[in-house]
Amino acid sequence: MSSGRSLGNAGENMAAAYLLEHGYKISERNYRCPIGEMDIVAFDGEELVFVEVKTRTSLRYGYPYQAVDYRKQQRYYRISAFYRASHPQYADLNCRFDVIEVYLPNNDTQNINHIKNAFEVGDNRYY
Is the pTM of this model over 0.85? Predict the structure, then answer.
């Protein structure tokens, strides 16, 4: 496993623990479909939340959330639509897209920044 994938896995584990500590219920991790992958699918109360986790050791190339550009937002929207179509029990739930930034500048520190409603696509209702 590459160090980049190891870093990503560590960040996703920290993000999942963070969400659980804040009362979220995780439905799926690393949800894969023909369109792509979503790091975490969770519930915040009755709201369905699609979470992208971005982990960095420095800000050399910008803030992690900046990696979620328009093209990726469109893909995440399509993944969420596929997820909702394959889980019709969730079709009427409100949903949102969050980004969790995990900073791991060295082995002694970590910082998590949870950006709720990081972006919206369309009217945020798919059906």
Answer: yes
